[in-house]
Amino acid sequence: MKNLFIAFTFLFTTSLLAQTHQIVKHNGETMDVNFIKKENNIVYYTLPQSAEEKTISQYAVSQLNEKSKSASAILSEKIQLNGKSDYKKVVVLEKHQTEGLTESGIITSFYGGLKGESPLSFSDSGEKRLKENAALKESPFIVIISNNPKDLKAILYTY
């Protein structure tokens, strides 16, 4: 019971002490939030009227504006893709890092390797093919859901 009381007290006081910020997303949306921290490409925040901790991908957030000091910090640059040659700009994310991004489809590909090629180079080749397909569809983020030689799939994400 004592631990439960301490946890509720901590959550309540954290939300009261947090400064009010404004998150500006790459798609133009703005949200008034109480910023907590940024860790592992994820931004943690609470809404001003709630103590529930929420998350959003750092890649979805353009900047974080602190209202009290009128200071701002750029959290990520918007990725612009201009065809297949920009495949190196495509970012491979984990599923939990896509909060705030929009799912825009699924892509598939195949392995095309040479005889005697190592399994590691097969895997790198598959990831490269998925990134090239994502760049063609102008999707700067992918989550690889299957990296098997006969079933190579990824989910596309955009701002």
Could you explain how this protein is built, in words?
This is Alpha/beta hydrolase. It comes from Flavobacterium petrolei. Keywords: Signal. Residues 1-18 form the signal peptide. There is one protein chain. The chain folds into 2 domains: 17-74, Roll (SH3 type barrels), CATH 2.30.30; 84-158, Dodecin subunit-like (2-Layer Sandwich), CATH 3.30.1660. Helices cover 21% and strands 39% of the residues. The chain is built from 2 helices and 10 strands. The strands form 2 sheets. The chain has a 6-stranded antiparallel beta sheet, with no helix packed on it. Strands 7-9-10-8 form a 4-stranded mixed beta sheet. β2 (30-39) and β3 (42-46) form a beta hairpin.
Range of helix content? 10-25%
Order of helices and strands: HEEEEEEEEHEE
If classified by CATH, what would the architecture of the largest domain be? 2-Layer Sandwich
Number of strands: 10
CATH top-level class of the largest domain: Alpha Beta
Spatial shape: elongated
Spatial arrangement of strands, main beta sheet: 4-3-2-1-5-6
SS-derived structural category: alpha+beta
State mean pLDDT (0 to 100 scale): 86
Number of domains: 2
- Distance N to C terminus: 43 Å
What is the C-alpha radius of gyration, as a whole number of Å? Answer: 20 Å
Low-confidence sequence ranges: none
Q: Note the total helix count.
A: 2
Q: Report the CATH topology name of the largest domain.
A: Dodecin subunit-like
Strand percentage lies at 35-45%
Q: How many strands, what sense, and barrel or not for the largest sheet?
A: 6 strands, antiparallel
